Amino acid sequence: MMVKPALRKAMLALMVTSLLGCSSVDNVNYADRASQAEADTSQRLIEQLLLASKTPDVPTQSIARLTDLVNVPELQSFISAALQNNPSLQQSVVALKMAYAQHGITSANRLPSVDASFSGTSTEDSDDSYTTDITVSWELDLWQKVADSSNAALKDIASTQASLQSAQDLVAANVMRGWLDISLKQQLVAIETQRLTVLDNNKALILARYRVGLGSLEDLDNANTSVASTQATLADYQQQLAQSKRDLTLLTGQWTGNDLAVNITAEFPAVLNPINSLGQQNLSQRPDIKTAFYNIEAEALRTDAAYKAMLPSISLSASLTDMAQSPTDALLTGPLWSVLGQLSAPLFQGGKLSSQAELAQLTTEQRYWVYQETLLNAVNEVENTVGQEYSLAKQQQHLIEAQLSAERSFVSYEQKYRQGLVDIFDLLTVQQQTFDVEAQLANTIYNRLINRIDLGLALGLGVLHEA
After folding, report:
1. Could you tell me if 334 and 322 are in contact, meaning their C-beta atoms sit under 8 angstroms apart?
2. Secondary structure element (H or E) that encloses residue 345, with its range
3. Which of 308, 299, 298 is nearest to 22 (CA)?
4. Residue pair 206/424 in contact by the 8 Å Cβ criterion
5. Which element (helix H / strand E) includes 461?
6. What is the SS3 assignment for 317?
7. Distance, CA of 159 to CA of 157 (rounded, Å)
């Protein structure tokens, strides 16, 4: 009779020791630190960019999503097809379903488990024996350890949803980039075609002058060289155009073996400047920031569960058992019942549980620094793309001025060559310069529009998310 009080005291001491051990954990709330860091960084960044964005060319349209940047109905249909059929995106959808399934596995530990068994034994020179047993067992989640693991799985789902959103945004952005790339390639093909037409005309003029003794063989060779070089460049651009169309079709996840079903004009579509949305945006809307933040919360919950694994646990089990000489009589016609309550606690496992808890704590801290790195990269992306917007705007303006000057010079030199005032080298140089500036301008406008899409992604603009 003296054993029971001693046992109670021992178990009480064990519980107190375990609680003291868990209370000594350095419980740093990395999620709160990360949230505060993002809020402070976003506020300073947005204020800085808004101050620098007070320029006349900032659009007045409201921009809520990435697809608001370009208002082309045919493009929107391509984006919708890509979001439904892109194989890479569908892998992210499956990953989300797997996260839900994993949560179901973790949550099942919070419910009682029921097991049933039926066995029969036949022994020589004795009667047959049949046994039926139904057992219900349940571990009380006294310290919310299982709840923490279940909530961690919910955070994993949220993280996977953010990753899916990131994949959707990237697919939509790639479709928009592909659309602009096709427009650029068509413009470059048109420029090289115009260049080739002019060079063919020059070649015919030089040949006519050569036949009447007004030109030299070197002039004719130079003209042939320019024509052949331009033909090679034109063939390259034509192949790039065909490849860009195939790439856009590939993004939709549907291959038909036919040419692109929609006619994309060579003229660039209007792409709004997402700087106008700075007042409504913050970096917390970026999917990669969300993913990193949910990972911190998930690991923090797993850390709590790891420390609680060192605490005592209480489990209950109840069973109904029936034994008879026939299967029918053994079907719980006169069962015996038993109930067992058990209190257990880990005493010595070679430091395994404490090491697991320490590892979980360090993993949480690691996730925090991953978040910090992601946040800094996000700020850097925003600053770089905003700087690119202003730089490319200046480049575009200078190239427009250069194009006007080159066109005037081209007309002037062509007239002078027909009058014999300049040689063929001067004319070819001016002609090449004119078309080179035109191609450079097209590339600059393209880069500026692509940069606006990148800026939209950097600011957290995305497509309408459907999990």
Report:
1. yes
2. none
3. 308
4. yes
5. none
6. strand
7. 5
Q: Which residues contact 394 (CB under 8 A, 6 or more apart)?
A: none
How big is the chain, counted in residues? 467
All residues at 6 or more sequence positions from 302 whose CB lies less than 8 Å from its CB, including other chains: 148, 149, 152, 360, 363, 364
- The number of C-alpha atoms within 13 Å of 266 and in the hemisphere containing its C-beta is 11
- Identity (one letter) of the amino acid at 199? L
| 3-class secondary-structure state, position 254 | coil
Q: Which amino acid is at 341?
A: G
Query: DSSP string spanning 49-64?
Result: HHHHT--TT---S---
d(CA 435, CA 187): 11
Instruction: Return the closest-CA partner of residue 441 out of 225, 190, 240, 197.
Output: 190
Per residue in 235-263, pLDDT (tens digit) is 999 999 999 999 888 888 877 766 666 78
Task: Summarize pLDDT for 28-44 with one digit per residue, the tens.
Answer: 788 888 888 888 888 88
Q: Which helix (H) or strand (E) holds 338?
A: strand 336-344
The burial class, CB within 10 Å (0-12 / 13-18 / 19+), for 166 is: buried
Place of tokens 């949550």: 107
- For residue 347, the 8-state DSSP code is -
Tokens 């001491």: give the residue: 13
Rounded Cα distance, 327 and 146, in Å: 39
> Which residue type is seen at 249?
T
Q: Which string of DSSP letters, residue by residue, matches 132-146?
A: EEEEEEEEE-TTSHH
DSSP 359-389: HHHHHHHHHHHHHHHHHHHHHHHHHHHHHHH
pLDDT digits (tens, 9 = 90+) for 131-170: 888 888 877 777 888 888 888 889 999 999 999 999 999 9
Distance of alpha carbon 21 from alpha carbon 82, whole angstroms: 53
d(CA 275, CA 126) in angstroms, rounded, equals 89
Question: What predicted TM-score, i.e. pTM, was given to this entire model?
Answer: 0.81
Structure tokens at 114: 């029921």
Q: Where are the beta strands (DSSP E) in 106-242?
A: 113-121, 129-140
Residue 17 neighbours by CB under 8 Å, 6+ apart: none
- Report residue 379 as tokens: 């700020």
| Identity of residue 89 | L
